[in-house]
Amino acid sequence: MAAIGKREKQLLLVLLVFGVVAGLYYGYDWYARIRREKVARRDALVREMNMVKEKVRDLAEVEEKLRQAEQLQEALQRMVPQEEEIPQLLRDLVTMLTSAGVELKSFQPGRPKNSPLPELSQIDVNISVNGTYRELLAMFDRLMKARRLIGVKNFSISGGKGIDPDLSCSVSLSVYCAKKS
User: Fold this and answer.
1) Higher confidence at residue 30 or residue 138?
2) CATH number, domain with residue 163
3) Strand, helix or coil at 10?
4) pLDDT averaged over the chain?
5) Is 169 exposed, middle or buried (0-12, 13-18, 19+ CB in 10 A)?
């Protein structure tokens, strides 16, 4: 084996240094590229996780709104009787009116007909009563607070003279019920 000369040692040293520098350069470049890819994947996962969290939050809001809508639907179903319950509802309506102290002159329920809502039937009821101002107020208050779906379509009041005269009141109501399936 021949001895390596000074010049050859210097050349080998330069090549070795060049190899180390090139290795470090390309190694660092490779490491930086891998790091950028990892950071990009992490950022994409964080964005996706934030979107999922937002959707979960939105889902919770939707579930709450759905729960509220179901409660409202249940309350409305309690307010809307079935067609079979209409005779009792009309008797309850007469009781509600007379318990306010008014004198019932006439009570004329119509036949069920289609309402603006396709699931409901509408029964128009024409009522004539006599009573004092306070009794009429009590009657309208009871109609307003009724636990059934009752709408006042029209009313008129005419009356006498004096301190607390009897008044005549005509009222057109709409009572709603669920259609038969």
Assistant:
1) 138
2) 3.30.70.60
3) helix
4) 86
5) buried
Q: For the full predicted model, state whether its pTM sits above 0.85.
A: no
Query: Do 110 and 41 share a structural domain?
Result: no
Q: How many domains, in total, are found in the chain?
A: 2
Any residues with CB less than 8 A from the CB of 134 and at least 6 apart, and which?
A: 101, 164
E strand or H helix at 129, and its extent? strand 120-131
With beta carbons less than 8 A apart as the criterion, state whether 172 and 156 touch.
Answer: no
Can you give the pLDDT at residue 181?
62
Domain of residue 131 covers 83-178
DSSP classification of residue 180: P
Burial class of residue 101, CB neighbours in 10 A (0-12, 13-18, 19+): middle
Same domain, 69 and 17: yes
Q: How far apart are CA 98 and CA 121, in angstroms?
A: 25
Structure token digits, residue 115: 């309402």
Predicted confidence band at 2 (pLDDT cuts at 50, 70, 90)? low
Say whether pLDDT at 161 is over 90.
Answer: no
